[in-house]
Design goal:
Length: 449
């Protein structure tokens, strides 16, 4: 059929992509395997089913990056965000919804369109012909996972995430921490100073181990097997194996000299590594964890240099299928090796309902522009959508790539504004003002094209 787009997966991203493409005049076939093939988390065969929480998080579009994504999706006529607004429940500053009514409405709105056909079947191959968007999410079926792995290579598709906490660089106290790579390795000064180091003396280390052992932990969901044990133990599990294990692992104090106290050998050192090209985010090396979020913030702020740390995201380990997007996808979310195939949603390495819908919105518009021959202007990097897509398709460190949610650390700094905690309100307002202007201009350019 003319101008036909196939979308695999009718979750957050696939439903949004289908809506956007249909609004632009495409004929869409939406392939959704449920209810014929189930996942351990979904309960129905409906489109847009929320698998866990019923919240789209903060709706504050001036001071919060998620709220800003809401604003941008509303401005772009997003299906997920507008439907969420219709079925909103009282939840303070958050956008929470009646999940059943929400999924019913998404299903009804899409199936009511003459140009969208829903086909309940599992897709198990990457087709050679036609235009496709794969939005199969964190629980992509096993057979499709194998087909993707065959195309991309085993190392480029992960089945679990193992997320170490990510800290805003400006919130690290460099009076206590210092920049140095172990044994000053590297050719350039940048490489020799690639890590932030936080030293601990014996008492601080022992107190830290006690806190790790005592912290509240989350359990895996039922059906989510604990296959993470192969390669990336949570730090609290390492600590359970012996009080010295971390000191011989990610916290080993060798090859490093503290310039603030050159004569004192640290008992242990926590290292943070740059997480994005902008240098605004650092991840704590080897600190993947199943500690509850509240406990994580308390425990990690015990680390000298991180007492005032602000976290762009906390750590976690989940069942999660995702691509190494920085190496595999081009700026249009196409698979470099098979440009008739796009990916969207959580499988691209974003995390959360909102971020996944946002990537669906972009993929739907990009596919439509390509099929209709109407070039889409580049997504502005200063918008929340642009900051996210830029991160996953290029800005993130490919070697250590782990799923990311939207946060202001992904945005280019606004010149001339005060750093630190005090300037935060003005800074966030400046980011969101700039983003809204850039996003509105991008949408206008498409209306007049
Ligand atoms: C257990 C669990 C709990 C979570 N809790 C939260 C939470 O509380 N808040 C939050 O923001 N995020 C949560 N997430 C992440 C959440 O799943 C995603 O953010 C969001 O649903 C991703 O949207 P998506 O469209 O990429 O994938 P999904 O919404 O999962 O949609 C993917 C769709 O593809 C279908 N599919 C898979 N394989 C195939 C195939 N081969 N052929 C055809 N169809 C296929 C699936 O049935 C599914 O409908 C959770 C994830 C999991 C696994």
């Amino acid at each position: 059929m003319k101008n036909e787009l196939h979308i695999v997966g009718g979750g957050m991203a696939g439903s949004e992509a289908a809506w956007q493409a249909a609004q632009r005049g495409l004929n869409v076939v939406l392939h959704e395997m449920r209810p014929e093939v189930e996942t351990f988390a979904h309960k129905t065969g409906k489109l847009g089913e929320m698998v866990c929480s019923n919240s789209f998080r903060s709706d504050d579009d001036e001071q919060n990056a998620v709220g800003l994504l809401h604003w941008e999706m509303r401005a772009a006529g997003g299906l997920i965000i507008s439907t969420a607004g219709e079925y909103r429940l009282p939840a303070g500053g958050a956008l929470a919804v009646d999940r059943e009514a929400f999924a019913d409405a998404i299903t009804a709105k899409l199936t009511a369109l003459d140009t969208v056909r829903v086909s309940h079947e599992e897709v198990t191959e990457l087709p050679d012909q036609g235009q496709w968007i794969f939005a199969t999410g964190p629980l992509t079926s096993a057979r499709l996972g194998q087909a993707i792995q065959a195309e991309t290579g085993a190392d480029a598709l992960a089945f679990f995430d193992a997320i170490a906490p990510i800290v805003y660089a400006e919130s690290i106290d460099m009076e206590k921490a210092w920049l140095q790579s172990r044994y000053d390795k590297g050719e350039t000064e940048d490489e020799q100073k690639a890590y932030v180091n936080c030293p601990m003396d014996r008492d601080q280390y022992e107190a830290f181990i006690d806190a790790l052992l005592a912290a509240d932990k989350t359990e895996f969901h039922e059906g989510e097997t604990a296959g993470y044990f192969d390669g990336c133990l949570p730090i609290e599990v390492m600590a359970e194996r012996g009080r010295e294990t971390l000191r011989h692992g990610p916290m080993k104090p060798v090859g490093l000299t503290n310039p603030h106290q050159p004569d004192v050998k640290p008992h242990a050192v926590v290292q943070l590594r740059r997480d994005n090209a902008l240098g605004t985010l650092f991840n704590i090396v080897g600190f993947q964890t199943k500690m509850k979020y509240g406990a994580q913030a308390d425990v990690f702020r015990m680390i000298p240099g991180l007492a005032e740390a602000r976290f762009a995201r906390l750590g976690g380990i989940h069942r999660n299928t995702f691509l190494n997007s920085p190496t595999l996808l081009d700026a249009q979310m196409r698979l470099r090796s098979r440009p008739n195939i796009r990916f969207a949603g959580q499988i691209t390495g974003v995390e959360g309902y909102v971020e996944s819908s946002a990537m669906g919105l972009l993929a739907g518009r990009m596919a439509a522009a390509e099929l209709l021959g109407t070039p889409l202007p580049e997504v502005p990097q200063d918008s929340a959508h642009g900051a996210l897509i830029h991160h996953i398709t290029g800005g993130a460190e490919a070697k250590t790539f782990q799923p990311m949610n939207v946060n202001f650390g992904l945005f280019r700094p606004v010149d001339g504004l005060k750093g630190g905690r005090r300037g935060r309100k003005d800074r966030y307002k400046a980011y969101t003002d700039r983003a809204k202007a850039a996003w509105s201009a991008w949408l206008d350019a498409q209306r007049t094209a």
